[in-house]
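Sorry, I am new here, but would you mind making up a protein's amino acid sequence and the tokens describing how it folds?
***
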Amino acid sequence: MAQPVITYLCLGGNLGDRLAALTAALRLLDTHDGLRMVACSSIYETEPWAVADQPNFLNLVAGCETTLSPVELLALCKEVESQIGRIESYRWGPRRIDVDILLYGDQVVSVADPDLQIPHVRMHQRAFALVPLAEIAANVAVPPQGTPVHQLLAAVDGTEGVIWWAGAPTL
């Protein structure tokens, strides 16, 4: 059996019952044999990123222990999105749920699939990911430079648009 790796997943959505979608996605992730939730941030309401003309998002970050490979983890994230009812639309558009891999241990993963770039290629630009990540993993080093999450958060614009909404959801 593979050694467990700590991974951080960013979940968000801005269509329908946002809290129900986040909670359902967390439950589906946590019940998978290859993944165990070990931490969950508070929920934050965030302004849309890149495409402003859409409803605000609810976002959170979950810290998980996994024995899945990065490719298997991406497949699980996509499956959870599908089960919650995500319908693909335009890039950065509204969605019921989105599950992104932010970090996978200290690994850098770059494959032909543009959906599998770890660390997440725009994580350092996204306050909506860094604020909840810093809540549960402020000192985690982000490869390849090893910059701690709290330093990335201090350098990002847009933190004023990330508003605490509720404590971590209970599963």
Q: What stands out?
A: The two ends are 27 Å apart (CA to CA). The helical segments are 18-30, 70-84, 127-137, 149-155. Residues 28 and 80 are 7 Å apart (CA to CA).
